Every structure is written in C-alpha cells, then in structure tokens.
C-alpha cells in the first residue's frame, strides 16, 4: 500500500448486473486503503429469474440479493439512497437523502427504465416491467385479485401487456403460468405497435412464440400502438380501445434521465458514451456499464448478458486506475445466448440466427442462473 492510494475514494453508483462482480471483488481495493462506497436505493434484482419469479416458478426472495451484505463482506460502505445528480467536474454525487458523496473515481450502473412518459396515463395506471421489484408486486396483485378472502374465485381479470419484444412475451406467458398455478381464469392480450412480435429475433423464434401464445390463449394485437391509457382501457392510435383490469408496460427500455443531466456526451438514446476501457469518453474518472451506457459508435443491446460481461473489465479497470496497472479493453460479443422462460416448463434458446425450444433449454437456463446467483449469496 502507498500513501497516495490510501484514502482515495471509489463511488459505486447502482448495484446492477454490471456492478455485482465489481462489488464482490472489491477486497483488494479496500485492503489497500481505498474507501469504497456502494449506493443503491434497492437490493439487487436478477433479471434472469424475473419472469420465472412472476410466474411462480421461483419465490420472490430467490430473485434478490442483499447488496448491503455483499458490500460489508468486502469492507465497503453501503448507502441505501438514490443518486439525484453526478457532478463530474467537482467529483461529487448528490443523494436524495440530502447528503453528498465526494469521490476520486466513480462507476455508474443505474440500469434502465420503461419509458412511461411516452404514453399518456401509463405512469399512473401501468406496472412497468422494470424495476423488477414491480413484477413481484404484479404477482402479488394478481394473486390477490383472483382470490376472494373466502376462497371463491373472483371475476376473471383481463390483463393487457403493452409491447411485443422478448420481455413482453415472457411476461404474458408467465402470467398465464401464474394463473394456472392459482387455478384462476384470466384473459391476456398483448398489444404491440410492430407488425410482428420479437422483432430483432430470428423468424423461427417469433414463429415458435407466436404459436405458443396462441395455444396459451394469449391474444396478440399487432400494429396496435397505444395512444393513451385511461383507468380501465387503453386507447389505440388507429382507433379502438382495449379494456383491462391490469396493464403492464413492457414496450422497451431507456436510460434513466439522470444520465443526460451529467453533462457528458451521450448517445442519441441518452446513454453515457464510453471509450473501450468503459470510461466516459470525456471524463476518465467516471466509468460505467450496463444499460445506462454504450460504447462510442456502438449500439450495445440492453441485456444482462452484456452487463455481466462488462463487470469483469470494469472490476479490473477500477482496480488498475486506483492501484496502478494497465487498463483492459472491453470487447463486446457479437453473438450471445439468450434463453427465454416460456412459463410452461420449456425455454427458447436463441443464439444468432438459431433458436431451439425445449425442457432442457429451461433446465440449462436454470443451471446458469443459479450458478450466477450463488456467487453473491
Ligand atoms: C422482465 C425482464 C426480464 C429480463 N430478462 C433478461 C434475461 O433473461 N437475460 C438478459 O440478458 N437480460 C434480461 N433483461 C434485461 C436486463 O434486465 C438488463 O439488461 C439488465 O438489468 C441490465 O443491468 P444493469 O447492470 O444495467 O442494471 P440493473 O440490473 O437494472 O440495475 C440498476 C441498479 O441501479 C439502481 N439505481 C437506479 N437508479 C438509481 C439511482 N438514481 N440511485 C441509486 N441507485 C439507482 C437500481 O436500484 C438497480 O439496482 C430483462 C429485463 C426485464 C425488464
């Protein structure tokens, strides 16, 4: 340990998929006298189990990890607070609780959110697909609705899911799974502005999921952009209404607005622009990873697989910046494995242009997810 390292301050802002491994491997830094502080308003919620948790395959507690416990284990301080502003010139972070946090090096992993403000009424009425904590609330809400206190079934509720991507389809299928587990009747509609579901996925995957949605009695309305959401119905841009009892917003993810307020270069869609070492292209003391950032000149997908891969590079580069050493380049993978949980005991594995559905795909996903979570428990 040298005098220059001791007492230097590292701020880890947000404990998402890109930071969990950074936090887990902080020990060499704290041992060297670096003051590491982790700030998050919540626990870590794992997206890989999110839809399985919604459908009742996993308990809610299986999907979350205490960041406080993890941080303490490696000698870091944990602040349960919300970051309201990052000032890279002064190297200070402002917190909703009224405090502030000065740093020498900071790393941002604030995730993404569903753009509720793009559709009138959505923010007041919908369950957003993210934060994942809200899916646990949706599960509890539906469970309560379909059960009277005396055990008699209630009127079958109608669930509307806005969106047509992988998240929307997984949510629809796992809500059906939850209803089956509760032995409850529900009607489910998925409304997407696109002319097909799962755009960006291979056509074979879209066909497989389309057929399954049909078999699971989930109505799909394509070319059905929602113009506004009223307390009991969504009004479509082309005319017409879809009545609902519960509405879920799963029409995409955007960077949190706070990223645009930092004053550093961002992409057209509001993500912090990074150099190959995962630092802001203009501010070398500010690192970032996950959905809230992207490489300069690249449109990285907003998926956990990318964030988790970045974590190893982030952990190394934070250590190298604070203790000395060569920085490592992040090289994004060109293909990645994604396994969708279809709620019926099967998974759909997608790899580039290939897709395959089966029980063993879900078993494989379960194995990978459990192995990932075990590292932090
Ligand atoms: C329902 C659903 C299922 C998904 N399933 C998959 C999947 O199976 N595989 C896959 O690869 N991807 C999946 N994704 C995508 C995946 O969730 C994201 O890509 C992933 O979460 C990105 O992780 P992250 O590191 O950017 O941030 P996140 O994991 O989202 O974490 C961000 C953290 O920052 C904290 N935070 C945010 N703002 C503040 C603030 N102002 N102050 C303090 N803390 C703050 C949050 O509390 C959170 O802990 C899914 C997404 C959804 C919505």
Q: What do the pLDDT scores average to?
A: 95
CATH arch. level architecture of the largest domain: 3-Layer(bba) Sandwich
Distance between the termini: 29 Å
**SS-derived structural category:** alpha/beta
Strand content: 15-25%
CATH fold category name of the largest domain = FAD/NAD(P)-binding domain
Question: Biggest sheet: strands, sense, closure?
Answer: 5 strands, parallel
Any idea of the CATH class of the largest domain?
Alpha Beta
The coarse overall form would be globular
Poorly predicted segments:
none
Number of strands: 23
Helix content: 25-40%
Heterogens:
flavin-adenine dinucleotide
Structural domain tally: 2
Spatial extent as radius of gyration = 22 Å
CATH H level, superfamily name of the largest domain: FAD/NAD(P)-binding domain
Give a structural overview.
- By secondary structure, the chain is α/β, with parallel strands linked by helices.
- It is globular.
- The strands form 7 sheets. It has a 5-stranded parallel β-sheet, with helices on one face.
- The chain is 29% helix and 24% strand.
- The mean pLDDT is 95.
- It contains 11 helices and 23 strands.
- The chain folds into 2 domains: 185 residues, 3-Layer(bba) Sandwich (FAD/NAD(P)-binding domain); 137 residues, FAD/NAD(P)-binding domain (3-Layer(bba) Sandwich), CATH 3.50.50.
